[in-house]
Model the fold of this input.
Amino acid sequence: MTSRLRELIQQLGEAIHESVIESEQISGVVQDIRKQGFDVLLMLEATIGLNEVTEGDSEETEESEEGAAFTKNDRDWLKRLRISVEGEDENEEIGG
Done:
């Protein structure tokens, strides 16, 4: 793994951390828990998996209106996190 790739993974971790800290929804729930007389310690673990993409890989992608492309692996990972992708079949169950 190159030092540039390590740096990018570090930046990804920091971005996830900042997203959680700045989430109004999470903040609101934490405040509600505190109002019930409890302190909150939130610890999250993120696993970042990398698959090297080589030229000639023909993995199917879908592009959103913003131009972001999602591979099947991306969509599966997001579903496991219970994150819906705009344009996906909303009636589809998140499996288990």
User: Anything to note?
Assistant: Strands lie at 61-63, 69-71. Residues 53-91 form one domain. The longest strand covers residues 61-63. The helical segments are 3-22, 24-35, 72-80.
